[in-house]
Structures are given as structure tokens and as C-alpha cells.
Amino acid sequence: MPDSDLLLELAHFVEKIAAIARTGLAFKPDGFDSERYEALLTEAARVHALLDGAGDQEAERLKLRWREQVIAGYEGYVTAGVGCGVIAFNERDQLLMIQRPTGKWWYPTGFCDVGISPAENAAKEAREETGLIVEPERLLAVIDSRKRGSPGRHIYSILFYCRILGGTLTTHPLETLDVGFFPLDRLPEPMHGVDRKWIALAREFHFEGRIAPWFDPL
Q1: To 10 degrees, the CA torsion angle through 106, 109, 111, 117?
Q2: How many domains does the chain have?
Q3: Which DSSP helix (H) or strand (E) runs through 23?
Q4: Quick one: 147 and 174 in the same domain?
Q5: CB-based contacts of 214: which residues, under 8 Å, 6+ apart?
Q6: Over 80: is that where the pLDDT of 4 sits?
Q7: Which residues lie closer than 8 Å to 106 by C-beta, 6 or more apart?
Q8: pLDDT tens digit sequence for 182-199
Q9: 201 and 138 belong to one structural domain
Q10: Among 13, 90, 154, 172, who pairs with 80 as Cys (CB 3.0-4.6 Å)?
């Protein structure tokens, strides 16, 4: 296994151990089990700091931050993050894209807010980030960031194939540097993230008539 793959697997392992420890402390805040969960959290923070090239002080700060995030009981169960994304084409068969504050391009997307559905979240993100009103028509995919090789936070991305209803193309002062439509075979660079599966899926849904949503196989 290449060193880069080994480091990625180790980072994922540390994330899992930290999540198990935080969830354990949520349900067993005291007693014998809690001591073991505290020890797991300490070791996870130490290895995380080593992977980042940091020292003991950073490890302790990370451990304390994780510990402060523990919430008692059901609300403290640590899960993967959930995001929603918009795949939308204009009448010229060009794809809607945004330039994020990092300077990298991606489809309109964001974390799912509490209190509204994934489809409502997708429409909200499109309106906020691009100024356009979209209507989610079909579920396009549920993509697991871990299966796509992302080293960051574990996220499930719910992508919707959307129809543009109206609005005016505008940037968001905090979330987008630029917005625009681009041919699917000439998307702007640099692009955000490591996953490119969504590009093939966008082609299948828009140009080839696919209707069945995609998800990472077992």
C-alpha cells in the first residue's frame, strides 16, 4: 500500500475512534466505561496531531475540543455530516457552477439545515449561492465522501437533478466568488474536492435519460 493511502486510512481510523469515544461518553458519562472512552479520545487526539505534524499541546487542545462537543444521550451520537447539492442545466445544456471562497469550482451545495428537507435545502442553497430559483425534480445520487477518497470530514452528499425556474444569476458576498454556466466537457478549473463521479452522473441524467438514483455499492 502506498504511503499516501496508508496515511489516509490511518486518518479515517482516528476519526472513527474519536467518534466512538465521543458517542460512548454521551451515553456513559461516568464509571468504568467513561474512563476507557476518555483514554480513546486522548489517543485519537495524539495520533491526529502526529499526522498533522503538531505536538502535545495541539493534541491536548484537540482532545479538549472534542470533549466539549460531547452532548449527553441521544443528541450526542456522532454521525456523518449530510450535505445537499444541485445539478442544474440551462437551456443551452450548460451546467450551473459556483466558485467557492477558496477559488475552486463546484456545484451549488451546502450542509443540510435542521428543520427543512434535503430537497428544500438544495433549493435554498441554489437561491443563496447563485440567485436562481430551482426545483429538485429527481434524486440523482447519495455519495459517500469516504468511498470517493476524501481525507476530510465524513459526509453523505445528497445530489438532486434540478430544473431552473427563474431568478437572476448573482454571487453571494460570503459564499461565492463567481457563478456561471459551463459545458459539461469544459468545466472550470481548479475544481473542489477529489470526487468526479458526479460529472458522469450529471451526463447520464441530463443527456441520456437516466432516472434511477446512484449510491455507493456495498
Answers
A1: -160
A2: 2
A3: helix 3-27
A4: yes
A5: 140, 141, 142, 143, 197, 201
A6: no
A7: 97, 98, 100, 191, 192, 193
A8: 999 999 999 998 889 999
A9: yes
A10: 154
